[in-house]
Amino acid sequence: MSNQGDPFTNTDFQSLEPVHENIGDDSVGVWTRRLVLFLRVMSGVSMIKGLYHWADVCGMIGGEPFENHSIAWQTATVFFAVIDLVAAVGLWLAAAWGAVIWLTSIASMLVLEIFFPQVFGGGLLALVLEGGLLALYLWLALRSAQEAAP
Predict the structure, then answer these.
(1) How high is the mean pLDDT of the chain?
(2) Fewest Cβ atoms closer than 10 Å to its Cβ: which of 48, 91, 94, 108?
(3) How many angstroms separate the CA atoms of 148 and 150, rounded?
């Protein structure tokens, strides 16, 4: 049978392979591996956060129905339900856009907690945790970039 009419080639299928980190590859430095590990852990955290917000939207958690909350709370909850799940995918792939979406999510939560504490309650623990994760990411990214520099 001829493959002339086949629109897919062998290279098309190879491009659909999942992302693999080359564990034994010497070109990938220690700090880059640590950064990728951190991104994968944050992917799991973002997935849990996104699913938590969707559970809130669907009425599976919390005492009060979604519709009875303020518009600001509803908007923020839906925003984080979507952005955290998108960030989780990008972080798992260790893609640059995933880190940008995750940083947008972290920055948005920090701004919300600092300037609009009435929306989610202004938890100090959330501020410290999110700020610490942001600082850790920036430190790992800088160390990885220094390692890759000639």
Answers:
(1) 84
(2) 48
(3) 6
Angle at which helix 96-115 crosses helix 71-92, to 10 degrees, equals 150
Q: Where does residue 14 rank: exposed (0-12), middle (13-18), buried (19+ CB within 10 A)?
A: exposed
Structure tokens that stand for 150 in this block = 């000639």
Going by the DSSP 8-state scheme, the letter that residue 66 receives in this structure is G
End-to-end CA distance of the chain: 51
Mean pLDDT of 61-67: 85
26: its two tokens: 């010497």
The token pair at 101 is 């979406």
**Amino acid identity, residue 21?**
E
**Cα–Cα distance measured from residue 67 to residue 80, given in angstroms and rounded to the nearest whole number:** 17
Region 122-139 average pLDDT:
90
Contact present, 46 and 19 (Cβ < 8 Å): no
Q: How confident is the model at residue 25 (pLDDT cuts 50, 70, 90)?
A: low
Q: Identify the pLDDT of residue 95.
A: 92
d(CA 146, CA 140): 10
